[in-house]
Design goal:
The structure is a single chain. The protein is built from 10 helices and 10 strands. The chain has an 8-stranded antiparallel β-sheet with strand order 2-3-4-5-1-8-10-9, covered by helices on one side. The chain has a two-stranded antiparallel ribbon with strand order 6-7. The chain binds adenosine-5'-diphosphate (ADP) and citrulline (CIR). The site of adenosine-5'-diphosphate (ADP) has 16 residues, from strand 1, strand 5 and strand 8.
C-alpha cells in the first residue's frame, strides 16, 4: 500500500531520544519489514509466544476502596480495521470511513455502553478544555506522532464516542469510550475513579466483544491485534491506575525495582512522556503480547498489591 521502510523509521530518525522509533502504516509493514519489526517486538514484549486472548469476566478484591492511594483505574486497548491503512499512512477519506464504521458499530453496543459521538472538529475552546480535563478527548499527538505522520489533518476525522458523559452519581463514575483515529483507528477505553480493576476490565471486555461482532479488525496469527506502534500489538491492553505514593516518590529506585519485578511500567500523571505530579504515578503493565488479557490484569493486581 505504498508505506515505505523510510516512513516506518522516520519518527526514530527525527527523534533520536525515541524509546522505540518505529511505526507501522499498515498491516503489511509487519510482514514486509519483519526482519526489523520482529527484533523490536522481541526486545519490547520479551515474548516469542503466539497471541492468545481471554476476555472472560474477572473477579478481584478492590485493592483500595477507601481511596488512600489509588485515585482511578483506566484500561485501554487498541484496534485497527482490516483493509484500511493505519493512522501514520491513512488519508482524510479513510479517516471519515473509519468514523462511519465505528459510529455504526456503536449503535449495536449493549444498553449500558450506549452513548454519543463527539467529533473533534468544530469544538469550541471551552468545551475542548473541559473534555480534555476529564480525559474524554485527546490532543494532537506529540513530536513522535507528528514525525510518524499521525497528526496529518488533525482534528479532521477524529473524535470520541462516550458512553455516558460523566454521571457523577454512579459509583466510581464509570466511563466507556472509544477514541477514533488517534494513534490507532480505535482506542477502546474503560475507566473510573476507583480501584475496582475487575469492574473496569469487565466493562471494557463487554465493549470489545460487542465491537468485534460488528467490525473486522487487523489480526495476525502470531502477533494478534496489529497496531501503529509495535509496543501495542497482541492484546493491545494497557491496564493501569493513578496511584499516589508519597513515600516511594522519595525512594524512586525502590519503586522502580518493584515495578520492574512485576513487569509494570511508570508513566507520568499526564500520560506517556509527561512528568509525575504530586506523587501521582501512572502504573500499568508493560507487555501486551505473550499473556492473555486475564493474566495481564491478574499480574497488575498482584504488583499493585
Ligand atoms: P495511552 O494509554 O493511550 O497509551 P497515555 O499514556 O498518553 O496514552 O494516556 C492517555 C491519557 O489517559 C492521559 O491523559 C493520561 O493522563 C490518562 N490516564 C492514564 N491512566 C489514567 C488513570 N489511571 N486514571 C486517569 N487518567 C489516566
Ligand atoms: C517512542 O519511540 O518513544 C514513541 N514512538 C513511543 C513508543 C511507545 N512508548 C513507550 O515505549 N513508552
Amino acid at each position: 500500500w505504498g508505506y515505505s521502510l523510510d516512513q516506518a523509521i522516520r519518527s526514530g530518525i527525527e527523534n533520536p531520544d525515541s524509546a522505540i522509533g518505529l511505526y507501522a502504516g499498515d498491516a503489511q509493514a509487519y510482514t514486509l519489514f519483519s526482519d526489523l519489526f520482529k527484533k523490536v517486538i522481541q526486545s519490547y514484549h520479551k515474548s516469542q509466544d503466539t497471541h492468545v486472548s481471554d476476555l472472560g469476566p474477572i473477579e478481584l478484591e478492590d485493592l483500595d476502596p477507601g481511596k488512600e492511594y489509588i485515585l482511578s483505574t483506566r484500561i485501554r486497548t487498541a484496534r485497527n480495521i482490516k483493509g484500511i491503512p493505519f493512522p501514520p499512512h491513512m488519508d482524510d477519506q479513510e479517516r471519515t470511513l473509519v468514523e462511519k464504521r465505528v459510529t455504526g458499530a456503536c449503535r449495536h453496543l449493549p444498553p449500558g455502553l450506549a452513548g454519543v459521538y463527539i467529533s473533534l472538529e468544530n469544538l469550541d475552546t471551552e468545551t475542548q478544555n473541559r473534555l480534555r480535563a476529564q480525559k474524554l478527548i485527546f490532543p494532537k499527538g506529540d513530536r513522535f506522532m507528528e514525525a510518524a505522520g499521525v497528526n496529518r489533518g488533525f482534528p479532521k476525522g477524529r473524535g470520541t464516542f462516550i458512553s455516558r458523559p460523566g454521571d457523577p452519581k454512579s459509583p466510581g463514575n464509570p466511563i466507556f469510550m472509544i477514541w477514533v483515529n488517534e494513534e490507532d483507528h480505535l482506542r477502546i477505553i474503560s475507566m473510573e475513579t476507583s480501584s475496582n480493576i475487575a469492574r473496569v476490565f469487565n466493562q471494557l471486555a463487554r465493549g470489545i466483544q460487542s465491537l468485534s461482532t460488528s467490525l473486522e479488525f487487523a489480526l495476525d496469527p502470531l502477533y494478534g491485534n496489529l497496531t501503529s506502534c509495535p509496543t501495542n500489538i497482541g492484546t493491545g491492553l494497557r491496564a493501569g491506575v493513578h496511584i499516589r505514593l508519597e513515600k516511594l516518590d522519595k525512594k524512586r529506585q525502590t519503586l522502580e525495582r518493584i515495578v520492574r519485578a512485576h513487569h509494570l511500567q511508570i508513566r507520568g500523571t499526564g500520560g506517556e512522556k509527561t512528568r509525575v505530579r504530586k506523587a501521582v504515578f501512572d502504573i500499568s503493565n508493560k507487555h501486551r503480547l505473550g499473556k492473555t488479557e486475564r493474566q495481564i490484569i491478574l499480574d497488575l493486581h498482584q504488583g499493585l498489591k
